[in-house]
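Hey team,

Filing this mostly as a record. A colleague (T.K.) asked me to run one chain through the structure pipeline before their review meeting, and I want the input and output archived in the tracker in case anyone asks later how it was produced. No errors, nothing strange. Just documentation.

Input sequence:
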Amino acid sequence: MPETTFTVRWPDDTVQHCYSPSLVVHDHLSAGHDYPVEEFTARCRTALTEASDRVRARYGMACTAALAQLSDIERRAAGQAGRVHVLALEPPLPQETP
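Output structure:
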């Protein structure tokens, strides 16, 4: 499965590098966008749960790395207010040709 890393800047100015075992995170976050902490957390919850479910469907078990990443994001979000800036998603999705 293709994996994705996404880099974000939290309202306290810390930068975090995050992991997803699937490209599905591209469906929920966009590089260069800001999200309120609550919305960012909800989007990550949806994306990382979906990514873990894809791993389960393919390999018969959930992706503990995705679930651990979600837990870390939720822990960080609990103490912050403001907006999270998505700096990058790697690899980028291939450009679709019309």
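Quick notes for T.K.: The longest strand covers residues 83-90. The chain is about 40% helix and 25% strand.
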